[in-house]
Specification:
alpha/beta, Enoyl-CoA hydratase/isomerase family protein, 16% strand, catalytic activity, Enoyl-CoA_hydra/iso, 2-enoyl-CoA Hydratase, Chain A, domain 1, single chain
C-alpha cells in the first residue's frame, strides 16, 4: 500500500508512524485508518523493529474521525471496518508508544490509548468530545488505564484534561516541554527499545494477558451499542450543525 496520510520510518529499532494530515489536524479519514492498519501490521511483523511509536508531529496528535466525511458519505461507508480498525490498534503484539502533542480528541484519544506508554507534550489535551454528538465513547481502553470510575466520568461529560492532569490520573507516563517534544519522544523510544523487541513483547503480554483475552469481545459489544446510536438522524444533524458553525460546510 502506498501511504499518503502517514509517514513511516525505521531507525535504530524504532518503527515510527507519523500522521500526516496537518491541515485537518490529523483527522482520521477512512484512508488514514486503512494506512494505520497496514503499517501496524507491517511493522508488527518486522524483526528489525523492537517497538512502534505513533505521533502526530508537534502541532496536533489527532482531532478524531474526519467529520466532513460523515456528511459527504453515508454512515455505513464512514464507519467502514470500524471494529477491525480498533481491534488492530489495540492488539498490536509489539510494544507501542504514542507521543501526543496538541489535541487528542474522540477517535484521536482512542488512538493515543493504543500506546502501552503515552508520552505527552506539556500542551497536550485529551477528551472524549464525541459524546457531545450523541455517540458513546469507547470505554474499555480508557478504563484499562485509569479505572472505571474515572473513565465513566470522562466519557459521560466529554471533559477535556491537560497533560499534567492526565499524568496525575496515570493515563500519561511522562510529560515533556513542547519545544523539541518529538525529538525527546524519539530519544525515549530509543532508550526503551534497547531492552530488545522480544523482551518488550514479553513484558506487554505478561502485563495485559488477562485483559487482552476479552479485548475483541468487549470492543465488539461496545461498537454494537454505537451502531444503535448512529442509526439515529440526531447524530448526523449534530455533526452538520457543528460543521456549519465552524465554517467547514455551508
Amino acid at each position: 500500500m502506498e501511504y499518503k496520510d502517514i509517514i513511516v520510518t525505521r531507525e535504530n529499532g524504532t518503527g515510527k508512524i507519523m500522521l500526516n494530515r496537518p491541515r485537518a489536524m490529523n483527522a482520521l479519514s477512512m484512508r488514514l485508518r486503512d494506512e494505520l492498519e497496514d503499517s501496524l501490521s507491517r511493522l508488527g511483523s518486522d524483526d528489525e523493529v523492537s517497538l512502534i511509536m505513533i505521533t502526530g508531529g508537534p502541532k496536533s496528535f489527532s482531532a478524531g474521525f474526519d467529520l466532513k466525511e460523515a456528511v459527504d458519505t453515508n454512515l455505513k461507508s464512514f464507519f467502514h471496518r470500524i471494529f477491525e480498525y480498533h481491534r488492530a490498534i489495540y492488539t498490536v503484539k509489539k510494544f507501542v508508544i504514542t507521543a501526543v502533542s496538541g489535541v487528542a480528541l474522540a477517535g484521536g484519544f482512542d488512538l493515543a490509548l493504543a500506546g502501552d506508554m503515552i508520552l505527552a507534550s506539556e500542551n497536550a489535551s485529551f477528551g472524549h468530545v464525541e459524546v457531545n454528538f450523541g455517540v458513546n465513547p469507547i470505554v474499555y481502553p480508557l478504563a484499562k488505564k485509569i479505572g472505571s470510575a474515572r473513565a465513566q466520568e470522562l466519557c459521560s461529560t466529554g471533559r477535556m484534561i491537560t497533560a499534567s492532569e492526565a499524568k496525575e490520573m496515570g493515563l500519561v507516563n511522562e510529560v515533556y516541554p513542547h519545544d523539541g517534544f518529538v525529538e525527546a519522544a524519539e530519544r525515549r523510544a530509543g532508550e526503551i527499545g534497547r531492552v530488545g523487541g522480544r523482551t518488550l513483547t514479553a513484558i506487554k503480554e505478561a502485563t495485559f494477558r488477562n485483559l487482552k483475552k476479552d479485548a475483541s469481545k468487549v470492543l465488539k459489544f461496545e461498537f454494537s451499542l454505537t451502531s444503535r446510536l448512529l442509526d439515529r438522524k440526531e447524530f448526523q444533524n449534530r455533526i452538520e450543525i457543528f460543521l456549519r458553525q465552524s465554517g467547514m460546510i455551508k
